[in-house]
Amino acid sequence: MTKLISKITAEDWIAEEETSDIFECLVSDDRLELIEMLVDRMKTIDVGESLIVNLVNPPDDEDLSRMNGGESKTKSEDIYLFNGHL
Predict the structure, then answer these.
(1) Which among 80, 35, 29 has a CA at the least distance from the CA of 59?
(2) In three state form, how does the secondary structure of the chain look?
(3) CA-to-CA distance for 55 and 12, rounded, in angstroms?
(4) Those residues with Cβ within 8 angstroms of residue 29's Cβ, 6 or more apart along the chain or in another chain
(5) 74 burial type by CB count under 10 A (0-12 exposed, 13-18 middle, 19+ buried)
């Protein structure tokens, strides 16, 4: 079994030939929800896919304003995309 927790810059990540140029980001302001999202995603992840997990502050008025103006796709919760980025 291989285990590693590391810090890496985006430039170093992209320069590595064996890594994907695409990150899937899991973002929540709730720890338990974030853990649930991670467990669900780990059930279907393929070798070579990458995940970023971010615990964030609850949204303030500015964040809510951007979310309301963003494109949203509904699965079991709203997922907001801003110009292709979360």
Answers:
(1) 29
(2) CCCCCCCCCHHHHHHCCCCCCCCEEEEECCHHHHHHHHHHHHCCCCCCCCEEEEECCCCCHHHHHHHHHCEEEECCCEEEEECCEC
(3) 23
(4) 55, 56, 57, 58, 59
(5) exposed
CA distance 40 to 37: 5
Which tokens belong to 5? 């927790």
Dig out the tokens for 39 from the structure: 């467990």
Percent of the chain with pLDDT over 90: 17
Encoded amino acid at 46, one letter:
D
- pTM for this model (two decimals): 0.59
